[in-house]
Write a sequence for this structure.
């Protein structure tokens, strides 16, 4: 009876699942979820009035902490969610890439506002569009594709190497490229694993630097194309 009174007094300061069966075993007693002695409370009061934060080992709170760590790349209120494991991330990434480029292809063929000549030119441009998409990271809403953002981060150093070689006769395919790839590859893998999929929204603290980096890479594409156009005009004698 004395143990029951102690347990009932502790349970009265929180709320949880009530039980009509009382017993001597721990699993026969009511489970207090919230309150100073609840299993979901990090700083539970001990008998001596102290908190037990360091030794807290509730499996419910462990799952809560793991969920926070997993969703660190996801904006609050986002409808998307990260992959459950690495294998799922790779499979989801493959499907996202296929769906994205299929949609881009259908946008060309099913565009009622473009005539046949414009569609033909867009089809001819499609390989270059793929190359550009595979190197320019766009984490913004409306153009967001988790797998494409991750892959473009990984492949962007290769384009920077080509751009530096063609436009400035600078060779960065040695240790510089190794350092570049050693940074880009882990970042791309982390995004594929923890960034939100589908129509989700990436966390602002992560989307802003990625968007800035993508803007810089896009500027290199514009500069490279402009140089080729100038060279073509000089070849034709226009300038």
């Amino acid at each position: 009876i004395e143990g029951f009174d102690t347990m009932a007094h502790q349970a009265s300061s929180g709320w949880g699942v009530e039980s009509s069966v009382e017993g001597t075993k721990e699993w026969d007693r009511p489970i207090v979820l919230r309150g100073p002695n609840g299993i979901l409370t990090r700083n539970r009061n001990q008998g001596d009035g102290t908190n037990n934060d360091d030794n807290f080992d509730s499996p419910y709170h462990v799952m809560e902490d793991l969920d926070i760590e997993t969703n660190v790349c996801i904006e609050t209120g986002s409808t998307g969610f990260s992959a459950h494991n690495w294998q799922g991330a790779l499979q989801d990434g493959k499907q996202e890439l296929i769906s994205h480029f299929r949609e881009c292809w259908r946008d060309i063929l099913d565009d009622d506002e473009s005539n046949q000549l414009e569609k033909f030119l867009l089809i001819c441009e499609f390989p270059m569009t793929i190359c550009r998409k595979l190197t320019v990271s766009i984490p913004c809403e409306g153009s967001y594709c988790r797998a494409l953002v991750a892959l473009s981060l990984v492949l962007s150093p290769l384009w920077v190497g080509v751009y530096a070689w063609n436009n400035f006769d600078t060779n960065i395919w040695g240790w510089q490229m190794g350092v570049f790839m050693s940074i880009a590859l882990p970042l791309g893998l982390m995004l594929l694993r923890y960034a939100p999929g589908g129509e989700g929204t990436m966390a602002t603290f992560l989307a802003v630097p990625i968007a800035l980096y993508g803007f810089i890479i896009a500027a290199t594409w514009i500069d490279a194309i402009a140089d080729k156009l100038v060279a073509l005009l000089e070849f034709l004698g226009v300038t």
In short: The two ends are 101 Å apart (CA to CA). DSSP finds seven helices and two strands in the chain. The chain has a mean pLDDT of 81. The beta strands are 15-17, 31-34.
